[in-house]
Amino acid sequence: MTTTTHPDLAPQAATVARLVAGVGDDQLADPTPCAGTPVAGLLDHLMGLTLAFRLAAEKAPMPGAASASAGNLAPDWRERLPRQLDELVAAWRSPAAWEGVAEAGGVQLPAAVMAVVGLNEVLVHGWDLAVATGQPYQADPAAVLTCLAHAEQFARTMPAARDSIYGPVVPVPDGAPAFDRLLGLTGRDPSWSA
Q1: Any bridge partners for residue 101, and if so which?
Q2: Alpha-carbon gap, residue 106 to 87, rounded angstroms
Q3: Of the candidates 13, 17, 34, 72, which has an alpha carbon nearest to the alpha carbon of residue 165?
Q4: Does residue 86 or residue 160 have the better pLDDT?
Q5: CB 71 within 8 A of CB 28
Q6: Residue 136 burial by CB count (10 A; 0-12/13-18/19+): exposed, middle or buried?
């Protein structure tokens, strides 16, 4: 995907940070749209991916991939995850972050593409967390359009890679909102509820 401006991760990161504050301890074992992953596992994944994509921006890749294990969730996740979201945003505000190649999860991509992948992770997993915990979700319109364009291109040009990352595409009605189309392309049913 070629862009002339850099996507801003801040609005969606702030939304997800607010969601974290609304997660109750009694919800940690609840299901999420990510099959087999409870809320605690999703929070663990968000912690790992915010670190991985921050390090990608800093050109200091994290070894391995972000886990999604309830058993690995750090006890101080309520404080750490919002801080890591802020650090992710700050890292991608550096002009150097957008230069050259960036690596996350063992995958190397042009830095600008990696930023969109990171934004998509925050955006989509933020929705996963919101619907799993019964909280309202505000998807940043600019983030949605950026991520939808990326997801459409990814599905069109690398279908096998897309299928290895996401579940099967969930069909959405013609004329569905852009965010519903993005959710469908990332293997999610926009009408999912806990």
Answers
A1: 110
A2: 21
A3: 34
A4: 86
A5: no
A6: exposed
Distance CA 171, CA 76 (A): 38
Structural tokens at position 45: 């994944």
Burial of residue 137 (CB within 10 Å: 0-12, 13-18, 19+) is middle
Q: Give SS3 for 109.
A: strand
Dihedral (CA of 92, 39, 26, 70) sign: negative
> Domains (ranges, CATH) in the chain?
10-185 (1.20.120.450)
The one-character DSSP state at 133 is T
Residue from 52, 147, 152, 144 nearest 102 by CA:
52
User: Are 113 and 175 contacting, i.e. CB atoms less than 8 angstroms apart?
Assistant: no
- Please check the confidence at residue 2 and state whether its pLDDT lies above 80: no
Q: Concatenated DSSP letters for 19-77?
A: HHHT--GGGTTSB-SSTT-BHHHHHHHHHHHHHHHHHHHTT-PPSS-----GGG--TTH
Dist CA 97 CA 50 (whole Å): 15
Give the per-residue pLDDT at 133. 98
pTM: 0.94
Question: H-helix or E-strand containing 103?
Answer: strand 101-104
Tokens 């960036």 belong to 102
pLDDT, tens digit, for every residue of 61-72? Answer: 888 777 889 999
